[in-house]
Design goal:
Blueprint (H helix, E strand, L loop, with lengths): L4 E4 L5 H16 L5 H11 L2 H9 L4 E6 L5 E8 L11 E9 L8 H15 L4 E7 L3 H9 L3 E10 L2 E11 L1
Helix pairs in contact: 1-2, 1-3
Length: 172
């Protein structure tokens, strides 16, 4: 497996994160999300403007994984929490974490999570939150291995289609 080089994303990485975000979201959810709504969601939630704004915000942290040739293959985005659960001081949200299919397994997910934990600890995070689709059992198993526990549920909208997510937390 090609090694992944991890680093903090900068504003210059907005186009790479947009392309990677759209590709991974489509690959992950095309099997059960309505096509037109899915594409509209990707254009907005993974558009260039979204990542430009995120990377310009000092409260958000993005980590990008690249091949030795600079091709983006994985990323994570950490943000102030915006989930419908009782928040605690020191909470931070892992809003997005995606790896392209060929880079899943082989320890890359764990390596990315180590980068996430380091970034979260640097900012004084006490509890890391995330939401995961109820049908994504592979991701749920991964998060459980990482020490996350379910603390709630939320609805994630893609167009007019509602999808249920589980909210997880992990003490740092």
């Amino acid at each position: 497996m090609t090694p992944v080089l991890w680093r903090r994303a900068t504003p210059a990485d907005a186009a790479a994160l947009s392309a990677l975000g759209g590709a991974t979201f489509l690959a992950s959810f095309a099997h059960d999300h309505p096509g037109e709504a899915l594409l509209t969601h990707i254009a907005k939630a993974h558009g260039l403007d979204y990542y430009r704004d995120a990377l310009a915000d000092p409260e958000q942290i993005a980590i990008i994984g690249e091949t030795a040739l600079g091709a983006p293959v994985a990323y994570a985005l950490l943000t102030p929490p915006n989930l419908p659960v009782a928040l605690e001081p020191g909470d931070y949200e892992l809003k997005r974490i995606y790896l392209l299919g060929p880079w899943q397994s082989g320890g890359h997910g764990t390596a990315l999570m180590e980068q996430v934990y380091a970034a979260a600890q640097e900012r004084g995070t006490k509890r890391l939150l995330l939401a995961v689709y109820t049908q994504n059992e592979k991701a749920q198993a991964f998060y459980a291995r990482q020490g996350f526990e379910q603390i709630g549920r939320t609805t994630f909208m893609v167009g007019d289609a509602a999808f249920e997510d589980l909210v997880y937390a992990r003490k740092m």
